[in-house]
Amino acid sequence: MKTSIKAALLSALVFPGLGQMHLKRYVRGLIPMVLVLTGLGVLIVQATVDALQVLDKIQLQGGTVDMNAVSNLAAGSLTHGDPYSSLISLGIAGCWVFSVIDAYLLGKEKDRRNVQDQAKGE
After folding, report:
1. Could you tell me the pTM of the whole model?
2. Which sign does the torsion angle of CA 91, 96, 102, 106 carry?
3. 58: left (phi > 0), else alpha (psi -120 to 50), else beta?
4. 84: closest CA among 38, 51, 53, 120?
5. Cα separation of 94 and 103, whole Å?
6. What is the DSSP letter of 82?
7. Is the Cα torsion angle 60, 61, 62, 64 positive or negative in sign?
8. What is the pLDDT of residues 45-73, one digit of tens each?
9. Are 94 and 10 in contact (CB under 8 A)?
10. How far apart, in whole angstroms, are the C-alpha atoms of residue 20 and residue 83?
């Protein structure tokens, strides 16, 4: 398998930045990793806060767990949630796409150098 394809697949299917790490471009791979992990962390914290708020509302309403009430409260918190969540999700997707394209281009460059080196060796 070509290096460019392998690097792009690592960044696309495993985690963004992993393709750059495979190509030994560590700083270039670490940047999207940190950005995506930070964004995911923020989204997880926000989801946890929203879930705790839903549980508090249920407890205030008598503490009985009714699945319809839980789903209605959860849907209401999703529609009135943090406006930055969609912006963060868009940023994560952008970093992921950038990482795949960048890994592919870096891999293509490495493939080209390998072909040139093999041609010189013959």
Report:
1. 0.79
2. positive
3. alpha
4. 38
5. 14
6. -
7. negative
8. 988 888 888 778 777 877 666 677 667 76
9. no
10. 32
